[in-house]
Write a structure and sequence with these properties.
GO terms for molecular function: lipid-A-disaccharide synthase activity. InterPro entries: Lipid_A_biosynth_N, UCP028440_lipidA_biosyn. It is a single chain. By secondary structure, the protein is an all-alpha fold. It has one domain. It has helices at about 1-20, 20-50, 55-75, 80-110. Helix 2 (about 20-50) runs antiparallel to helix 3 (about 55-75) and helix 3 packs antiparallel against helix 4 (about 80-110). The protein is elongated. The termini are far apart.
Amino acid sequence: MVDLSRAIGTYLQDVFVNNLDWWVLLGFMAQFFFTARFVVQWIASERAGRSVIPVAFWFFSIGGGALLLIYALYRKDPVFIAGQALGLFVYLRNLYLILRETKREPASAI
């Protein structure tokens, strides 16, 4: 049990301390954006009393997706690159559709 505890401690030291560099900090910032988008969505839904996806969700998604894509490119991880690139496309497309709809609404109200 002591050996397992030491092995886990050594692993955590290596992962979170020895490997800490600007790229890891960028990855953490990207992860912060992804976490923030869900917090924003949750708060908006609680306030509305129903499931809501605010525009800020898509901005945080784009920020997190772009940063994670940069991080994945640096790490040369093809699975991570493909996943983030596709996700980034979806986030940008959703934001485009929302903005396009917003531009049409004032014109149709006249």
